[in-house]
């Protein structure tokens, strides 16, 4: 899927009655030395490029590149350092593939340069709250993912609390969508992410997965990243490299509730889940049509 095809997918997502058939897989490439799962593995350009192309071969519809770790307790990096990490990668990947590229950043300058280099999606964990982020996003025609996070990466796991976690996330997303529209960004360009693991305890993450369909109130595609997250480790008592099955179970539950984009480190395995879910869903739809 290239950038234009992804934009069309995003704009027309809610015109389809069968959204399971439209679910996409987003492969993660962290060009950082300190990300929680794969930090340091792909912070050299040749390794990062080879990994991204491998994810494309495994079935990724989107490649999400990040140049700043957002693990719990992470400290911010400078704008220039982040640019130096992500822009050469985007330029080289664009030379090798027409895959849709997502830039995972909160910094407006990085968003702008990444789009100029070939990215087609802004994936912002701060939901365009940084100064000038709205105006930069409005100046492009790319898709934008707005994520909920309580606090910052450095503070988000310092005893997060909610009254009703779903209601509070939905209210935040509603306000950010309204801010985007007021800034001149078409609603059809937007994607929402409830922010699994970002300023949330285990019970919050399980609740938002179990009730993911409630985020459909915004009539926008839902993105979810559960891959190798701490919640899985705590529930199953597993280390980071042992959390695949737990992540696939959460993916299946989320897909049943209309998940649009699955963000994952493990593309090949996740793609099998998506393909199997889509086959079962198609069989059910075909049976209903025959009985109509």
Could you walk me through the main structural features you see in this protein, from its secondary elements to its overall organization?
Its EC number is 2.5.1.15. This is Dihydropteroate synthase. It holds the Pfam family Pterin_bind. The protein is of the alpha/beta class. The protein has a single domain, classed as TIM Barrel (Alpha-Beta Barrel). Helices cover 44% and strands 13% of the residues. It is built from 10 helices and 8 strands. The chain has an 8-stranded parallel beta sheet. Helix 4 links the parallel strand 3 and strand 4. Helix 2 packs across helix 3, helix 3 runs parallel beside helix 4 and helix 9 runs parallel beside helix 10. The mean pLDDT is 92.
Give the helix/strand layout.
Blueprint: H1 3-12, E1 24-30, H2 45-57, E2 62-66, H3 79-96, E3 100-104, H4 108-117, E4 121-124, H5 133-138, E5 143-147, H6 165-182, E6 190-193, H7 202-210, E7 223-225, H8 230-236, H9 244-256, E8 261-264, H10 267-291
Parallel strand pairs: 1-2, 1-8, 2-3, 3-4, 4-5, 5-6, 7-8
Protein name: Dihydropteroate synthase
Cofactor: Mg(2+)
GO molecular function: dihydropteroate synthase activity; metal ion binding
């Amino acid at each position: 899927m290239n950038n234009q095809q992804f934009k069309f997918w995003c704009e027309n997502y809610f015109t389809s009655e069968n959204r399971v058939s439209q679910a996409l897989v987003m492969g993660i490439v962290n060009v950082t030395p300190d990300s929680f799962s794969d930090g340091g593995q792909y912070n050299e350009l040749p390794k990062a490029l080879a990994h991204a192309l491998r994810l494309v071969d495994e079935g990724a519809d989107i490649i999400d590149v990040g140049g700043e770790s957002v693990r719990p307790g992470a400290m911010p990096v400078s704008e220039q350092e982040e640019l130096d990490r992500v822009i050469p990668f985007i330029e080289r990947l664009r030379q090798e593939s027409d895959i849709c590229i997502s830039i995972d950043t909160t910094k407006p300058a990085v968003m702008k340069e990444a789009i100029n280099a070939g990215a087609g999606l802004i994936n912002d964990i701060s939901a365009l709250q940084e100064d000038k982020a709205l105006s930069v996003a409005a100046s492009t025609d790319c898709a934008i993912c707005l994520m909920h996070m309580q606090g910052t990466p450095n503070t988000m796991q310092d005893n997060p609390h909610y009254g009703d976690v779903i209601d509070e996330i939905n209210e935040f997303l509603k306000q950010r969508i309204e801010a985007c529209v007021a800034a001149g960004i078409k609603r059809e360009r937007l994607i929402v992410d409830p922010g699994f693991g970002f300023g949330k305890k285990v019970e919050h993450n399980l609740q938002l997965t179990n009730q993911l369909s409630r985020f459909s109130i915004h009539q926008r595609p839902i993105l979810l990243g559960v891959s190798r997250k701490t919640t899985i480790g705590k529930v199953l008592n597993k280390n980071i490299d042992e959390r695949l099955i737990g992540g696939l179970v959460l993916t299946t539950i989320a897909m049943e509730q209309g998940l649009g984009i699955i963000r994952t480190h493990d593309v090949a395995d996740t793609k099998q889940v998506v393909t199997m879910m889509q086959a079962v869903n198609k069989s059910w739809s075909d049976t209903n049509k025959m009985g109509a």
